[in-house]
Amino acid sequence: EIGTLTLMARTQKNKATAHHLGLLKARLAKLRRELITPKGGGGGGPGEGFDVAKTGDARIGFVGFPSVGKSTLLSNLAGVYSEVAAYEFTTLTTVPGVIRYKGAKIQLLDLPGIIEGAKDGKGRGRQVIAVARTCNLILIVLDVLKPLGHKKIIENELEGFGIRLNSKPPNIGFKKKDKGGINLTATCPQSELDAETVKSILAEYKIHNADVTLRSDATADDLIDVVEGNRVYIPCIYVLNKIDQISIEELDIIYKVPHCVPISAHHRWNFDDLLEKIWDYLKLVRIYTKPKGQLPDYTSPVVLPYSRTTVEDFCMKIHKNLIKEFKYALVWGLSVKHNPQKVGKDHTLEDEDVIQIVKK
């Protein structure tokens, strides 16, 4: 991998080299994939039990350098008592905390050791990565006094594990075939990819027959992400801690930075803002249940991820047998025109709808 990296650093940019760089990037991506997918074989099991049971409606991973106040933030948010030491490299296991916010149970996980070297398989890196990839949101905790260097390193780490922050999957159609060669269609002008480059990247994956459709101006990295197919797209908030150490003017500037929330973990300043933004980014949908002839239960909503909010998803969340007995549902709220409205299992629910299931 080091060889490939230096080659990339040495290559100047022009059309021929763009093509060469694409190739090197693909080679690098392949090497990294071998690192993030642990090799098979018996013995030793899957690691020293860094697996964390997934509880609650959403899971948030906290990433940050040692001693930026990550543990303080976690324990003050969750009331989870986590030993806080004032020296480097403290946390090595994960203590999940759970907070309740707006009726949703949100699991908070410290992801230790995602720092330089983790993606090269050093340390506990691998298990941590596996857990990081299952998070619904990642909070990168930064020290407000030295944020940028840390931010870059952490982002590079996460990128290397196939985690893409605050971005959408590239708009590229990709379909392998048995014959017919590489068939490239672009629906808009491309500044980086041409037939030649696409062919060489795919050849690196030993793919010689495929349909590729570029629906946006795509980069070599985008194409590699699509071919690898193991990328996860996770929203991310940068938490700038220790704001008690800066001036009001500096604070005003931070407030304008996208995806950023300034806080003081120690003084518990601005936690409400942070929680509000977390809620925003998680995009959870709360559904209240109403037993027949009673008032809706507004205290414990059924919480669904925004990508799966049909009545069927709701039923599955409660119990998998419920859908077998399902006749129709009555829904009150934003997703319907009349209150109540009779709907089938394919109806899509909105946040804070009230539902009553009628069984056969």
From TrEMBL:
Which Gene3D superfamilies does the entry link to? Answer: 3.10.20.30, 6.10.140.1070
- List GO terms (cellular component aspect): cytoplasm; nucleus
Q: Name one GO biological process term.
A: positive regulation of microtubule polymerization
Checking InterPro entries in the record gives: Beta-grasp_dom_sf, DRG, G_OBG, GTP-bd, GTP-binding_2, GTP1-OBG_CS, P-loop_NTPase, Small_GTP-bd
Keyword field: Cytoplasm, GTP-binding, Hydrolase, Magnesium, Metal-binding, Nucleotide-binding, Nucleus
Q: Where is the OBG-type G domain?
A: 58-283
PROSITE patterns the UniProt entry points to: G_OBG (PS51710), GTP1_OBG (PS00905), TGS (PS51880)
Report if keyword Cytoplasm is assigned: yes
Location (main, coarse): cytoplasm
Quote one Gene Ontology molecular function term.
GTPase activity
Compartmental location: Cytoplasm; Nucleus
Q: Give the TGS domain ranges.
A: 283-359
Output the PANTHER family linked to this UniProt entry.
DEVELOPMENTALLY-REGULATED GTP-BINDING PROTEIN 2 (PTHR43127)
The protein here is known as Developmentally-regulated GTP-binding protein 1
In its UniProt entry, the species of origin is given as Nannospalax galili (Northern Israeli blind subterranean mole rat)
What's the encoding gene here? Drg1
